[in-house]
Specification:
The chain is built from six helices and four strands. It is mainly α. The relative contact order is 0.08.
Length: 203
């Protein structure tokens, strides 16, 4: 989630590793002491809570001795919805928007696939539906804001800009030159900067 949400903070980083060897553990303790982190800020205990859903790995770091992959948004969403923790609410809303899963049945199918043979508890379904409402509400509000922004975008006060200039750039000096409705250059005298000609073109 740290790579997906700007400014997000966390107390630890959950990882599933092929082997958190002693060297890496020593390095993590060194980083912890240097940056005032908890000694177990790298948490490899989450492997016991893996869900039954296909991982869609996304490479987020490649070093000389370390390669890091993210589990992918669908996997993260499923694990967080199954956990049902209130602290994960904003993460779940973000992941729903990222995955584009706004259909209730599709979201519940994802959670059921993650749960495997264990049937979903009523609280699992309730929590998922509640998060979906929050994500959908935010989506509707963004759509409304975008629509209003487009509709209420200030129009240019310069009518000459709105009407446009003629294709022929060789407009005689002293002539307005704004494009008329018929597409021809206005031949009224140039009104001067900030004024309008007799046809109403502001210059």
């Amino acid at each position: 989630m740290l790579t997906r949400v700007p400014g997000r903070q966390t107390g630890d980083i959950d990882i599933v590793s092929e082997g958190l060897n002693s060297g890496l553990r020593r390095a993590s303790r060194t980083v912890a002491s240097r940056h005032n982190l908890a000694p177990d800020w790298i948490n490899d205990g989450v492997k016991g809570f893996a869900v039954s859903i296909e991982v869609e790995p996304e490479r987020i770091f490649t070093g000389e001795c370390l390669v890091l992959d993210s589990a992918g948004p669908r996997y993260l969403l499923a694990t967080k919805l199954l956990s049902g923790r209130e602290s994960d609410e904003s993460d779940c809303v973000h992941l729903i928007r990222e995955t584009g899963i706004y259909d209730e049945s599709e979201l519940l199918d994802l959670i059921q696939s993650a749960a495997g043979h264990r049937p979903l508890r009523p609280r699992d379904e309730y929590w998922a539906k509640e998060i979906l409402v929050l994500a959908s509400k935010g989506r509707r509000m963004r759509n409304v804001r975008n629509w209003l922004s487009a509709r209420l975008k200030p129009r240019s006060s310069n009518r000459a800009d709105a009407v446009g200039r003629p294709e022929d750039s060789q407009v005689p000096q002293g002539i307005c030159g704004a494009r008329t409705v018929s597409g021809k250059a206005c031949k009224n005298p140039h009104p001067g900067t900030g004024r309008t000609c007799s046809a109403g073109h502001r210059r």
